[in-house]
Design a protein that fits this description.
Elements lengths: L10 E4 L5 E4 L9 E5 L5 E4 L12 E3 L35
Antiparallel strand pairs: 1-2, 3-4, 3-5
Length: 96
Amino acid sequence: MTCRACHRPVLWTVTAAGRRLAVDPDPDPAGNAAVWRDGTGTLRSRRPTDELPLCGWELLHMPHVATCPAHTQPALPGALPPGVVSLDAHRRKKRP
């Protein structure tokens, strides 16, 4: 499948909470999503922790939202602290 915004290939996984998470298709040691295929063939993902580190059957992938060029935007100097993303572009506009 491909990302709707940038048309790059992505893998869709299901998290432990049952939500869908798009990850880049190639494993990335800098990623924070542990991905594996369960017995039914579904791609699953979770965030490794100190209590439950990466298992032998899991590979680290980068969540696609972190690398998608359509979702990244230049930070305004001094407006937001590092690591905080403005959601203004993604909010729906209210009709007058």
